[in-house]
């Protein structure tokens, strides 16, 4: 077997080296609790979902492409690290990239190189303001090609369930559970000696729906981002149509065979979040314990929210933190 001469370029390309590092984090992170790892201070060692891996890999590849053009003598990730801050600063100076993109690229490279938030040489991306977020705020050219009137049931289904596109396109007729059905079947499931993944998920999700205080009559069991299961409460004003749509679907067939790309699923999810919040929110002046009040920051400074209602929305959307609601959906209230 031949040996590489000293100074010879490694057999793996920079792209492959980066892929191996991030993919290794993904393989180690799948199935782990992100919240537990965050509490333990080891969250930087893992990637928890394939979608996050894909996003990070895409932007790391942009960095690698830049290295290959501007520093062709650099053939290892270790040597490329010194140019991370320079690349990000150039991206910001170009004015072509949003604060969101720069934050994502900062996170991707920090994950790749293990750059901690308190690293003195870490690049600080510009602050992201809600007013700068274009997606699902105003009608775009793409939106104009989607008729809400011709797709009325789909739109109401989205507004009534808050499903992500992945969940919307995967659910089948067995996803719907009435509140009464859950109350009667869960005790029996807990007695079973051997449970399927779905049954274990149903028991776990059932334990989290007490925050909804028995208001929803129906829930949808769905597996979405990061392979996480959740019971999404169906808003009562849409429950009849949604239940009929699901129940009329043949067993084994997806409820929605086609969801147009121009359908603003994310925007309807925001409307769902706002509607659900209003269902549970108390008047701020009536909340006795001020610890139950969330004060927004940034461009929503001055807006105060009911933490109890925010918790309900968090569980419904499958988020880990109520801060996500404050950051992405509070402006829709």
Overview of the molecule:
This protein is mainly α. The protein has 2 domains: 14-128, no CATH class; 143-332, no CATH class. Helices cover 46% and strands 6% of the residues. The protein contains 14 helices and 5 strands. It has helices at 14-29, 34-40, 50-70, 77-80, 84-94, 99-113, 152-161, 165-168, 179-191, 197-206, 239-247, 265-280, 307-317, 323-328; strands at residues 176-178, 218-223, 229-233, 293-295, 304-306. It has a 3-stranded antiparallel sheet with strand order 1-2-3, with helices on both faces. Strands 4-5 form a two-stranded antiparallel ribbon. α3 (50-70) crosses α6. The radius of gyration is 23 Å and the shape is globular. The model is unreliable at 130-142 (pLDDT under 50).
């Amino acid at each position: 077997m031949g040996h590489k001469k000293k100074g010879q370029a490694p057999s793996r390309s920079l792209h492959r080296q980066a892929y191996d590092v991030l993919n290794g984090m993904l393989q180690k992170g799948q199935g782990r609790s992100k919240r537990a790892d965050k509490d333990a201070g080891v969250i930087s060692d893992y990637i928890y979902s394939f979608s996050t891996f894909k996003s990070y890999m895409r932007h790391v590849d942009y960095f690698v492409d830049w290295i290959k053009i501007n520093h062709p003598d650099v053939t290892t990730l270790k040597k490329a690290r010194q140019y991370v801050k320079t690349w990000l600063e150039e991206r910001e100076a170009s004015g072509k990239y949003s604060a969101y993109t720069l934050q994502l690229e900062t996170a991707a490279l920090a994950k790749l190189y293990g750059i901690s938030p308190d690293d003195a040489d870490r690049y600080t991306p510009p602050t992201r303001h809600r007013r700068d977020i274009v997606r699902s705020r105003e009608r775009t050219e793409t939106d104009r090609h989607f008729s809400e009137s011709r797709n009325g049931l789909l739109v109401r289904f989205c507004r009534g369930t808050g499903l992500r596109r992945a969940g919307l396109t995967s659910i089948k007729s067995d996803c719907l559970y009435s509140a009464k059905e859950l109350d009667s079947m869960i005790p029996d499931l807990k007695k079973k000696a051997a449970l399927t993944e779905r049954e274990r998920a149903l028991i776990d999700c059932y334990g989290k729906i007490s925050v909804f205080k028995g208001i929803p009559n129906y829930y949808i069991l769905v597996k979405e981002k990061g392979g996480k299961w959740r019971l999404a409460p169906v808003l009562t004003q849409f429950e009849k149509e949604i239940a009929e749509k699901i129940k009329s679907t043949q067993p084994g067939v997806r409820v929605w065979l086609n969801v147009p790309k121009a359908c603003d699923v994310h925007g309807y999810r925001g409307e769902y979040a706002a509607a659900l919040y209003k269902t549970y929110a108390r008047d701020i002046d009536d909340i006795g314990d001020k610890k139950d009040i969330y004060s927004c920051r940034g461009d929503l400074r001055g807006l105060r929210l009911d933490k109890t209602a925010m918790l309900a929305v968090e569980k419904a959307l499958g988020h880990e933190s109520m801060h996500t609601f404050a950051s992405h959906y509070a402006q829709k209230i």
